[in-house]
Amino acid sequence: MSDEEKESSPSKPSDSGEGKPKSKRRAPVRRKKPASPNAKKAEEVTSEKVAPEVASVADQKPEKSESEQKIDESHPKLQTKPKSSAKPKEKEGKPEDRRHSSARSQRQPNRKPQEHAAKYHEDQARNVRDIANLKGKRPIVALTAYDSVMGRLVNDAGVDFILVGDSVGTTLLGHLTTIPVDMTDMVRHTAAVRRAQPKCLLVADLPFGEASFSFDRLLESARRLMQEGGADAVKIEGGRDVADDIEKLVATGVPVLGHIGLLPQTVKAIGGYRKFGIDRHEAEDLFTDAIALEEAGCFAVVAEMIEEAVARELTKQILPPLIGIGSGAGCDGQILVSTDILGYNTRKAPSFVKSYANLNQVISRALSQYVEEVRGGKFPC
Ligand code: KIV
User: Among 7, 210, 237, 304, which one carries the catalytic annotation?
Assistant: First the structure.
């Protein structure tokens, strides 16, 4: 608002100027310059669009004295429409200019979409020590996430750790197994979850082959997951065969989550997904592997599809928490694939998964409704 407008504004108490000589108060109106054609047009538009409540404020303007009215009548230029201070006067200019200025205002920093902060749960594990300390106190709970949206939701649900699993390959990327998943995939998805700023521990999977070339390659891959992806720790499939390298990795400061039982990265070698530890020989192997990982310094061990009684016994025998997936209720904690429990998938979830939602159905209904509404001319309305 210009000084000129401020002074003539009817809603400004100082302008009503009680006690002041009225001729002085009206002086600014007399200074009004002849308006340019564009400005006149703009004024017409503004005054036509004056909101009723604004108009009523203008109507409340103190009545003019007889002498004031005479002066106004004898000077047609002074017969200005009451101005409103409640509605800022539109800038002069062509409609295009106004459109540009509104586009500009949308670029203002205060128009940035506001993101809600990740929730902080008092008893949520924050680091590997917290996870290890939870053993014997309460069940540890974990879920997978592969992007920022799910990362935020999973954190906010209060999990103790998020795993960016190589299951991203089968759940989101359309692969039949986790074998095609590579470091590029894992770094990208881990970084996406990190951007959700979860308060809990964030673990990333070492993809197929990365632990098998050499220790240097393993260290380099772990480095990428932590430095480029922002992981707090890495998960490595395997038992005694990888224990030495895990020990070296832990010694360099890389926290490691072990993984025994069904190792999805070996699915081609084992000929399909199945339960482990059913016969005595396999059960003994699992004990050897679990103890090797404990000695290597794993802060916890995932036990996938291990016979319930064997998993229960393993839980008692090893110091790090055993986090089960399809291994029964006797473990120190549970982890599941988030898309499986949410019913957001193109393939059937494993039989041990409990379904907590049917997102496929929810999304499918919403999408069909959108398609129908656009085709039927109901949207946009
Ligand atoms: O990749 C993954 O999601 C996993 C879990 C099944 C533990 O390894």
Answer: 304
Of 144, 142, 156, give the one whose Cα is nearest residue 339.
Answer: 144
Quote the DSSP letter at residue 78.
G
- Other CB atoms within a 10 A radius of the CB of residue 36 amount to 10
**76 Cβ neighbours under 8 A, 6+ residues apart:** none
Nearest CA to ligand 1 atom 8: 165
User: Do 137 and 211 have their domain in common?
Assistant: yes
Indicate the pairing of strand 233-237 with strand 333-336.
unpaired
Is 53 a known active-site residue?
Answer: no
Alpha carbon distance 190, 227 (integer Å) = 11
In the chain, what is the greatest distance between 2 CA atoms, to the nearest angstrom?
113
The span from the CA of 263 to the CA of 283, in Å, is: 15
- Structure tokens belonging to residue 314: 């393993």
Q: Which residues contact 3 (CB under 8 A, 6 or more apart)?
A: 28
pLDDT digits (tens, 9 = 90+) for 186-226: 999 999 999 999 999 999 999 999 999 999 999 999 999 99
Instruction: Give the single-character DSSP code of 49.
Output: T
If asked whether residues 212 and 332 sit together in one domain, one would say yes
Q: Which two tokens stand for residue 244?
A: 């030495």
Q: What is the tens place of the pLDDT at every residue in 52-90? A: 333 333 334 344 444 444 434 444 443 444 444 444 444
d(CA 135, CA 126): 15
Q: Please, what's the b/e burial string for 263-299 (b: 16 or more CB within 10 A of its CB; e: otherwise)?
A: bbbebeeeeeeebbbeeeeebebbbebbbbbbebbbb
Residues 153 and 11 in one domain: no
Domain-located, residue 41? yes
Q: Is residue 68 part of a domain?
A: yes
What's the gap between Cα 317 and its chain centre? 39
Of 335, 338, 340, which is best to mutate to test ligand 1, by the most ligand atoms within 8 angstroms of its C-beta?
335
Alpha carbons 234 and 56: distance in angstroms, whole number: 68
Q: Which residues does residue 258 pair with via DSSP β-bridges, in sequence order?
A: 236, 301
What does pTM read for this prediction? Answer: 0.72
